[in-house]
Amino acid sequence: MIVNTSLLGRRILLRPLRPEDFWAWQEVRRRNLDWLTKWEPRRPDGAPDPVVDRSAFALRCHARDREWQSGTGYGFGVFVGGSFCGEINLNAVQRGPFQSAYLGYWIDEEQAGRGYTPEGVVIVLRFAFEELKLHRVQISIVPRNDSSLRVVEKLGLRNEGTALRYLEINGVWEDHVRFAITAEEWAERRAELVEAWL
Length: 198
Known about the structure:
Layout: E1 7-8, E2 12-15, H1 22-31, H2 33-37, H3 54-70, E3 74-80, E4 83-94, E5 100-107, H4 116-131, E6 136-141, H5 146-155, E7 158-169, E8 172-182, H6 183-197
Helix pairs in contact: 4-6
């Protein structure tokens, strides 16, 4: 079983978020409200808001810990120079014949465009294929989310087409462009991606 771990890149550190990260996480989320919420699922009515409720954030951290323990998800905070600036997560890890996961990410708008997100994606892909031994990782992006599309374009990930009304985002069923990479593609491109980003 993989235990909670930190992953180091060229300029960033990825590690699971802990309850004591609340104040830094809250500050970034509050400052980036408009930048982020248009790309995220709407919080269910009556559900506590982890941005304002410290105990809800702690529960979120504990839920991520349980995902690590069960092998169903691996969540990381993104830290630059010791400061929190985003998240990158492997979600819905499926074993059996599928051996696949979904990768999602967000970054502080003040840190966007500096290459931290593609670096984080490469770090997590290396973890997914070399440590977790997954066969496939997918990233799904709303077609008008130019910032997220630039990440997968920089990395040269394969476009698998558009899934119509794929996920509920901010109360609307949104189309998503699906990008993926398999273990075979990672083996072919590993040296190139590691040299460029790590």
